[in-house]
Design brief:
The protein is α/β, with parallel strands linked by helices. The chain has one domain: HUPs (Rossmann fold). The chain contains 7 helices and 8 strands, in the order αββββαβαβαβαβαα. The strands form 2 sheets. A 6-stranded parallel β-sheet has the order 1-8-7-2-5-6, with helices on both faces. Strands 3-4 form a two-stranded antiparallel ribbon. InterPro entries: Cell_Envelope_Assoc, DUF218.
Length: 220
């Protein structure tokens, strides 16, 4: 009986592991297909009215390496005239600090016109960012700025939300350990991304529509 029970346990564990693998690989395939041909560097990105810059942790009032890379890529897009406005999306009440305050200060101190910056303090997840960009800010075409695998997932989610989206892959002066941790996190986040799309999940915070992004784009 013990041997039979052990075989059943092994089969059950093996079956569960196989199911998890199928889900992870399937969601990764969806992200890859949705973002295929839509990822660029700042110097090759097509023009768009606005770039959505995804927030990340801050450290002692300064951007982390991941966030600094995204902000530098956004600066490059503005200076090249590739985009006319920036929609900064992050958590204004994050455990590491106010991401939006840090992002705005970083960009303005480097010459970005504050009137071209719109801050969304309720971009609590990438899914929420994309849904709010459409419903609250009226975005229909945008570049999404983040690192590598996250940029691909963001493009997939924003396209599913109705945005004609491309991704700008930001640099990161990060350790190998940090990059590996980010990669693993991304692989595990993709099944939830698919589930959010299939459910049509609403963002955690919903706000009335505003023309802030349109006005930032139209500044002469």
């Amino acid at each position: 009986m013990r041997r039979v029970g052990r075989r059943h346990l092994i089969r059950a564990v093996g079956g569960s592991a196989a199911a998890v693998l199928v889900v992870v690989l399937g969601s990764a395939a969806w992200v890859a297909a949705s973002s295929h041909g839509r990822l660029y560097t700042a110097d090759t990105a097509p023009s768009a009215p606005v770039a959505i810059v995804l927030g990340a942790r801050v450290q002692d009032g300064e951007p982390s390496s991941f966030l600094a890379g995204r902000l530098d890529a956004a600066l490059d897009l503005v200076r090249r005239g590739t985009v006319r406005a920036l929609l900064l999306s992050g958590n204004a009440a994050g455990t590491s600090g106010d991401e939006l305050e840090v992002m705005i200060r970083y960009l303005v101190s480097r010459g970005v016109d504050p009137d071209r910056i719109v801050a969304d303090p309720y971009g609590l997840t990438t899914h929420d960012t994309c849904r709010r960009a459409v419903a609250t800010y009226g975005v229909t075409t945008a570049l999404i700025v983040s690192q590598d695998t996250h940029a691909a997932r963001a493009v997939a989610l924003c396209r599913a939300a109705g945005i004609e989206a491309g991704g700008v892959v930001a640099p990161c002066d990060c350790s190998r350990r940090s990059l590996l941790r980010q990669f693993v996190r991304e692989m595990l986040a993709r099944p939830k991304a698919v589930l959010d799309v299939l459910r049509g999940s609403a963002p955690a915070v919903q706000s009335p529509p505003t023309g802030a992004v349109r006005r930032a784009v139209e500044i002469g």
